[in-house]
Amino acid sequence: MRSIRTKTLAVPIALAAAIGLAGCSDDSAGPEQGTDVEDVAEAEPGDMDEGGDLIGETVTVSGEITETIDPAGFWLGAGGGLFEEGAPVISTTGDFTGMGMEDPESLMDSDTVLQVTGTVAEFVVVDFEEEYGIDLDDDLWEDLDGEAVIVAEEVATLAGEDVTVEGEVYELVSTVAFRLAGAGWEVVVLDAEQASVEPGDEVAVQGTVRQLSITEIEEDYGVDLEDELYTDYEGELVLVADTVEEVAATE
Fold first, then answer.
1. Residues 108 and 167 in one domain
2. Residues near 149 by Cβ (< 8 Å), separated by ≥ 6?
3. pLDDT at 249
């Protein structure tokens, strides 16, 4: 990887403003390097040239819930922008209560970003029901027969977590901000030092996910933000990034 810039803040698009922040934790889990929601969404079981080699692999990906299928499953979004598709996630127990998530539908409109760890599998309703001893609503799941799904093992919200996510720069918002697609949720990276990135660049952003508190950000990093730009986003998820690095584009 070639380092582009350090000490950045990634926030929702309407917050674009030039600010300089010190970095946060250097301990990045980095689970999503190499595979993201888009990869799973585009995987075609049986076709090694179209992501079929993901079948049987354990992955960790992140995104927002864009649609629920039933209590046993939901679609994890790929972040908008260039990548509108998502990946279906399914529980082997019929719901996600054992993973600490009571109701996926309640998270659809909350801007909550989830991190899902699980195995990519070719889904067949009858085989899945037999293997795990559950009864799915065939009418809701039959359209996914033969498709790649993530059989969930762990589901957690990302607030407070150290992560490394990769995505593609698809729009320069200003000289100090660009939008990132394919990270699992749409992120705008702000860089007061004006990182030299262009649309189409593949980058990795490492940092800590946290809920935005204007007061806490100002206190933690010794900056004076223009509060009126941030008020509407108080309490929403942001990514305070240590580094932004360019990565080789995948075919």
1. no
2. 73, 87, 88, 89, 90, 120, 121, 122, 123
3. 64
